[in-house]
User: Fold this.
Amino acid sequence: MLINFFKNPVEASKIGAGKFGNFADTHISNLKTLIPADGATLFGIPVKDILNTLIIESESSYDEWASSLSDKSTNKSMREGKTINLDDSLENLRDLVSRKAGVIADKFPRGTPVYEELYPGGVSEYKRVSKENAANIFGRFIKVLGLHKNVLGEDIFNEVNDSYNLFTTAKDEQSSSKSQVTDKIGLYQEKRRQLSVQLFKNLLTLLLINLEQPEKAAKYFDESMLAVKNSKTEEQPIVPEVK
Assistant:
């Protein structure tokens, strides 16, 4: 049906990045090897020159897409690393504050106002604290601890404060890496769209070149990599038949 010509089969495909890249790379290779040797022209322009232009445009678009894919993968790995650092620093902070309850109780016994300020929900409050509310809850602990460090000692305050700073730094780094990953994903999606459009342009140009034998355009593509399905779950050809 004619409507098939108004759809970009490459952009519509939901194939993964690896298969998409192989599809584009195979097509570019076919463009290079299937350049006609005769003096055929399209609108007065040698077909060989038209295909060489498509090759240059396609390679440039492919390189930009591949670069954005690499950046996206790198930033995702960095984000995963930051998440591990954040989890570790939070676990260390939980353990440290929980363990210090005994030392603090030696100076300010359980039930006294200072101890209750430090552990209003008991030690279990700190053991179950989440990443979302950890900064507030441990920040409260640090503030009260600072008010009484003359009794508890500088060492305990510095130890807990250093652990708290490691956690907040890891949290800030993770937030920053998440933002970077979001930006890289957006760039990747745009570069994939641009390459899909370029491949569609190539398809339409090849159809014009082979107007009397449109099936020849299919030789430039490996349709099996797209696996585009229509409503009847049949494979949709990249060069649709006109019925």
